[in-house]
């Protein structure tokens, strides 16, 4: 399973990076490949490429503010989560994704 995520928060500082780390840890704990792009106060870091998108099974986007270049993910399965949930509930998010994909 390949997971892509983009994290961003209104202030673009702490929660952006805390969410990225939490999602990365939770995905890796399941043995999944993961790449997280951050859209913080210093701009876009670890930018997701179109090649990454082509290989992705699921895209996780934080929904607290608009994500830049979201059109890259047209036609992909997208899960939207609050940045605070990504920080506090990343393992549960991955469990829900796994259950949903198993039913599909």
TrEMBL record:
Query: Is 4Fe-4S included in the keywords of this UniProt record?
Result: no
User: Record keywords: Cytoplasm included?
Assistant: no
Give the GO terms filed under biological process for this record.
Answer: phosphoenolpyruvate-dependent sugar phosphotransferase system
Keywords for this entry? Answer: Kinase, Phosphoprotein, Phosphotransferase system, Sugar transport, Transferase, Transport
Catalytic EC class: transferase
Which residue numbers delimit the PTS EIIB type-2 domain? 1-99
EC annotation from Swiss-Prot or TrEMBL: 2.7.1.202
A single cellular component GO annotation: plasma membrane
Q: This chain belongs to which protein, by name?
A: protein-N(pi)-phosphohistidine--D-fructose phosphotransferase
Known Pfam families for this protein? PTS_IIB (PF02302)
Which GO molecular function terms does the record list?
kinase activity; protein-N(PI)-phosphohistidine-fructose phosphotransferase system transporter activity; protein-phosphocysteine-sugar phosphotransferase activity
Looking at the record's lineage, which domain of life comes first?
Answer: Bacteria
Q: Which reaction does it catalyse?
A: D-fructose(out) + N(pros)-phospho-L-histidyl-[protein] = D-fructose 1-phosphate(in) + L-histidyl-[protein]
* SUPFAM superfamilies, per database record: PTS system IIB component-like
Species for this entry: Photobacterium phosphoreum
């Amino acid at each position: 399973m390949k997971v892509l995520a983009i994290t961003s928060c209104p202030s673009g500082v702490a929660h952006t990076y805390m969410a990225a780390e939490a999602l990365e840890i939770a995905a890796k704990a399941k043995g999944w490949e993961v790449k997280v792009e951050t859209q913080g106060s210093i701009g876009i870091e670890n930018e997701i490429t179109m090649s990454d998108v082509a290989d992705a099974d699921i895209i996780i986007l934080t929904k607290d503010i608009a994500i830049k270049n979201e059109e890259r993910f047209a036609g992909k399965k997208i899960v939207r989560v609050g940045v605070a949930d990504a920080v506090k509930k990343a393992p549960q998010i991955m469990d829900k994704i796994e259950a949903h994909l198993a039913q599909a």
